[in-house]
From TrEMBL:
<dbReference type="InterPro" id="IPR000653">
    <property type="entry name" value="DegT/StrS_aminotransferase"/>
</dbReference>
<protein>
    <submittedName>
        <fullName>dTDP-4-amino-4,6-dideoxygalactose transaminase</fullName>
    </submittedName>
</protein>
<dbReference type="InterPro" id="IPR015421">
    <property type="entry name" value="PyrdxlP-dep_Trfase_major"/>
</dbReference>
<comment type="similarity">
    <text>Belongs to the DegT/DnrJ/EryC1 family.</text>
</comment>
<dbReference type="Pfam" id="PF01041">
    <property type="entry name" value="DegT_DnrJ_EryC1"/>
</dbReference>
<dbReference type="InterPro" id="IPR015424">
    <property type="entry name" value="PyrdxlP-dep_Trfase"/>
</dbReference>
<keyword id="KW-0663">Pyridoxal phosphate</keyword>
<dbReference type="InterPro" id="IPR015422">
    <property type="entry name" value="PyrdxlP-dep_Trfase_small"/>
</dbReference>
């Protein structure tokens, strides 16, 4: 069977280095807010090119903390609106509504699955304070037009970079394109920890300081609390593991690109629509290889019968979720079509040539 994602195999690539680090942290007697975290934060900042990195507990917290910090700083207030793609993973939207802000959904482009920048401006009102872009599936969404819209309406650009670490637009990495970015190091992400982990990157000194305090009970100084904060920390074990794996992320992303290229060159079934390979290959790190078919459910069953595990990212659009009942009657036809037709093929840096060839062959005989 070809697994959707073989996490064991991915992590065992670095077995010696990771086990040495785990033992070092275990024996050190220091488990939170230590050298492992500060080293990883420094290396992540260098890698992304942003001035500040702040390790936090997970990707959802990273986004929640960015928005909460803007509220504490007076940039946003309860009831303000934040634009977000209508087909994103639910966490991007939860981060907004959790802060008492209003998510305003904008449809994606069908060929990139990313927010349609040309549809943003019509959704801007006097309450709009930010645009939360999501580099979905590992593909960059950014343009000079987006920067101009944000400037013209005085909006913050926040990147959800959970799926696209290592991607770049015109030589600048995702996580350094907007005003602040949230990262997830959930085990299945391109840079995955051994549990939950996340980070924020930004070049904004005040924002970084506010987030550091908010993530630490609202305190910059022990037992002195300036905000009603939370506890959202990246622990030493996760930081140590991530610091090892960060060294190999470019290599892994390049292998992902080669596999994506093979899929796109060699899958030729007319019942399947393939994702677009961007003209600048740096704009995609292929976190997910998402195809589309009107016969999606039959295709998935056929692949399963032939020993190929697939997943659907995502089966229910956010506006059809029970959690957002107030949106259930709204219509986002492009998102709905995407959610009805997409299927994600296995794509990971530890797949063998035989596995890749088999996925291509089986997909073509459907
Ligand atoms: C994974 C993910 C998140 C949430 O990250 P967690 O670490 O699981 O909290 C947010 N947004 C997107 C797009 C994601 O893929």
């Amino acid at each position: 069977m070809i697994k959707f994602l073989d996490l064991q195999k991915i992590n065992l690539q670095y077995q010696n280095e990771i086990e040495t680090k785990l033992l070092e942290v275990f024996r050190s007697g220091w488990y939170l807010m230590g050298n492992q975290l500060s080293n990883f934060e420094k290396n992540l900042s260098d890698y992304i090119g942003a001035k500040h990195s702040i390790g936090v507990a997970n990707g959802l917290d990273a986004l929640r903390l960015i928005l909460r910090a803007y509220m504490e700083m007076g940039v946003m207030k309860a009831g303000d609106e934040v634009i977000v793609p209508s087909n994103t993973y639910i966490a991007s939207i939860l981060a907004i509504s959790d802060n008492g802000l209003t998510p305003v959904l904008v449809e994606p482009e069908i060929n990139t699955y990313n927010i349609d920048i040309s549809k943003i401006e019509e959704k801007i009102t006097s309450k709009t304070k930010g645009i939360l872009i999501v580099h979905l599936q590992g593909r960059v969404v950014f343009s000079d037009e987006l920067t101009e819209i944000a400037k013209k309406h005085n909006l913050k650009i926040i990147e959800d970079n959970a799926q696209a670490i290592g991607a770049a637009w015109k030589g600048k990495k995702t996580g350094n394109l907007g005003d602040a970015a949230g990262f997830s190091f959930y085990p299945g992400k391109n840079l995955g920890a051994l549990g939950d982990a996340g980070a924020v990157t930004t070049n904004d000194d005040d924002l970084a300081k506010t987030i550091r305090a908010l993530a630490n009970y609202g305190s910059n100084q022990k037992y002195v609390n300036i905000y009603k904060g939370l506890n959202s920390r990246l622990d030493e074990i996760q930081a140590a593991v991530l610091d090892v794996k960060l060294q190999y992320i470019d290599n892994e992303n390049n292998i992902r690109r080669q596999i994506a290229k093979r899929f796109i060159d060699e899958i030729n079934n007319p019942a399947i629509i393939l994702p677009e390979y961007p003209a600048d290959e740096n704009e995609h790190v292929w976190h997910l290889f998402v195809i589309r078919s009107e016969k999606r459910d039959q295709l998935q069953a056929y692949l399963t019968e032939n020993g190929i595990q697939t997943l659907i990212h995502y089966p229910i659009p956010p506006h059809k979720q029970e959690a957002y009942k107030e949106w259930n009657d709204l219509s986002f036809p492009i998102s709905e079509k995407i959610h009805d037709e997409v299927l994600t093929l296995p794509l990971s840096p530890v797949m063998s040539e035989e596995e890749i060839s088999r996925i291509i062959a089986v997909t073509n005989t459907f």
